[in-house]
Amino acid sequence: MTKKNVVQFVCQQCGAQRSKWSGRCDNCGAWNSFIEQAIETTGANVVAASKGQPLTAQSITHITPSGQAGRIRTGIDDVDTVLGGGIVPASILLIAGQPGIGKSTLLMQLAQAMSARIPVLYVSGEESPGQVKVRADRLGVEHDALQLAASTSADDIAATIKQGAHKVVIVDSIQTLTMAELSSAAGSVSQITNSANLLTQAAKASDTALIVVGHVTKEGSIAGPKVLEHMVDVVINLEGDRYGGFKVLRAIKNRYGATNEAGIFEMQDTGLLPVNNPSAALLEERLSSDGSVVFATMEGNRPLLVEIQALVNKTHFGYPKRTASGFDLNRLNVLVAVLERRTKLNLSDNDIYINVVGGIKLQDPAADLAVCMAIASAAKEMQLDESAVVFGEVGLSGEVRSVANTDRRSSEAKKLGFSYAIGPRSATKNDFVRPVVSMRDALITYLKKT
Fold first, then answer.
1. CA pair distance 337, 320, nearest whole angstrom
2. What pLDDT score does 43 carry?
3. How far apart, in Å, do the first and last CA atoms of the chain sit?
4. What are the angstrom distances between the C-alpha of 289 and each of 32, 279, 300, 350, 378?
5. Which distant-in-sequence residues (6+ apart) come within 8 Å of 441 by Cβ?
6. CA 9 – CA 36 distance, rounded (Å)
7. 393-432: per-residue pLDDT in tens?
8. CA distance 250 to 234
9. Within 13 Å, how many C-alpha atoms sit on residue 392's CB side?
10. CA dihedral angle for residue 446, residue 439, residue 351, residue 299, rounded to 10 degrees
11. What distance in Å separates the CA atoms of residue 276 and residue 279, rounded to the nearest whole number?
12. What would the 3-class secondary structure string for the chain be?
């Protein structure tokens, strides 16, 4: 069988192949993503004979479920909650996050907790064993069952996993691995896809749980092809401000549990520690003033009270500026337009700044009413009652729409000493909530002059 090398340009975002280099991929729209690679192909006149074997099928009632012996507890309750009760044996987990967010720290803590009960292997492709040991000493890791290794060879790591000597293997990270059969560089589409496939097959065959770290791009998505996320069983993301504030761990994909759970952590000298009462910590240094509103949100199934701050200032450059930290900027522009159209507020010549305290990134549509009230409070120098919390979605007509988990939001507010909540009409059965029909009614009724 004759073989020849054909030069192709492969997009590092979606894997599309082109015979010529192009500045922009017409498949996914990424710029400067094509890299030249030599692809080995067979001759056109040679037809390879099939080497496949007939499959052996069996009744589904006779199959032993994976993880029948029980999930592997990580030793950190918040992580177990996000995973749906622990790690399923032979499952593949992908954890992603911004550089410096604490992925390696969290994995070392998990390795320390699990190694007290089961053998764990930590494979680093970015650091030497000595460098990993420095972090382990800082975190107080002292279990002999935790073993360290440094390698960027996917073939060597797969061979180690197949031995079945470890119940959990952690690989940091998938973007550093290479296979000897491929000539492309580490981090390319072909290397990531084939290395992940090789490790997955080894983990499934040996009933070993595999945790893989994935880098992210500057846009925030996991580096490499989208097929990487489809190949694994669980995708969890560590979010937050790398310089401080809370870190939120949430599952984006979970074949063995729900994706509506979240774990909240805070970085300390001894590692990432779960926050038992994040609402109290977020509101501890609150200074009551105009533009400050307390919002009752949901992080997974956990209620959380956060402070939303707004600052409205006259623009000096002719074009008003809109800036949001922890809140979607496009949604902010929509809410500003609704405020101008449905109330008498004139915000066209004002800069508007929104900040969610504590580094929390809000994705809850119930934040609409709180943001609108914070902007109006700052614009008119009026203040909301200190003992009130706010939640509710705002429509384009200015109406306040219903949101989920009203009772949980109210219970969290009661626990921290708030007197009432301002919310949608659907919450009339809850005595703690004072319902409002529209955003305009909420502004007129509850904003008072300071």
1. 13
2. 47
3. 85
4. 48, 19, 30, 19, 9
5. none
6. 4
7. 999 999 999 999 999 999 999 999 999 999 998 877 788 9
8. 11
9. 29
10. 90
11. 9
12. CCEEEEEEEEECCCCCEECCCCCECCCCCCECCEEEEEEEEECCCCCCCCCCCCCCCCCHHHCCCCCCCCCECCCCHHHHHHHCCCECCCCEEEEEECCCCCHHHHHHHHHHHHHCCCCEEEEECCCCHHHHHHHHHHHCCCCCCEEEEECCEHHHHHHHHHCCCCCEEEEECHHHCECCCCCCCCCCHHHHHHHHHHHHHHHHHHCCEEEEEECECCCCCECCCCHHHHHCCEEEEEEECCCCCEEEEEEEEECCCCCCCEEEEEEECCEEEECCCHHHHHHCCCCCCCCEEEEEEEECCEEEEEEEEEEEEECCCCCCCEEEECCCHHHHHHHHHHHHHHCCCCCCCEEEEEEECCCCCCCCCCHHHHHHHHHHHHHHCEEECCCEEECCEECCCCEEECCCCHHHHHHHHHHCCCCEEEECHHHCCCCCEEECCEHHHHHHHHEEEC
Q: Which residues are within 8 A (CB) of 410 and not within 5 positions of it... i.e. 6 or more apart?
A: 296, 421, 427, 430, 432, 433
Beta bridge partners of 312: 352
- The sign of the torsion formed by the CA atoms of 138, 140, 142, 146 equals negative
Please name the residue that has the structure tokens 């000298």. 269
Q: Compute the distance between CA of residue 54 and CA of residue 413 in angstroms, rounded to an integer.
A: 61
Query: The whole model's pTM is what?
Result: 0.77
pLDDT of 399 reads 95
* Number of neighbours of residue 344 by Cβ within 10 angstroms: 9
Tokens representing 124 are 């680093």
Q: pLDDT value at position 40?
A: 54
Q: What is the pLDDT of residue 145?
A: 74
Amino acid identity of residue 302, one-letter, is R
User: Cβ distance 158 to 202 under 8 Å?
Assistant: yes
Q: Which residues of the chain have pLDDT under 70?
A: 1-6, 38-51, 65-69, 143
How many other C-beta atoms are found inside a 10 Å radius of the C-beta of residue 316? 7
Q: Which two tokens stand for residue 218?
A: 């500057």
8 A C-beta contact, residue 244 and residue 325 = no
Distance CA 398, CA 369 (A): 10
Cβ atoms within 10 Å of 309's Cβ, excluding its own: 20
pLDDT value of position 336: 95
Spatial distance between the Cα atoms of 349 and 355, rounded to a whole number of angstroms: 20
Residue type, 219: E
Q: What does the pLDDT read at residue 5?
A: 58
- In this structure, how many other beta carbons lie within 10 angstroms of the beta carbon of residue 182? 19
Cis peptide before 66 (omega within 30 of 0): no
- At 131, which amino acid appears? Q
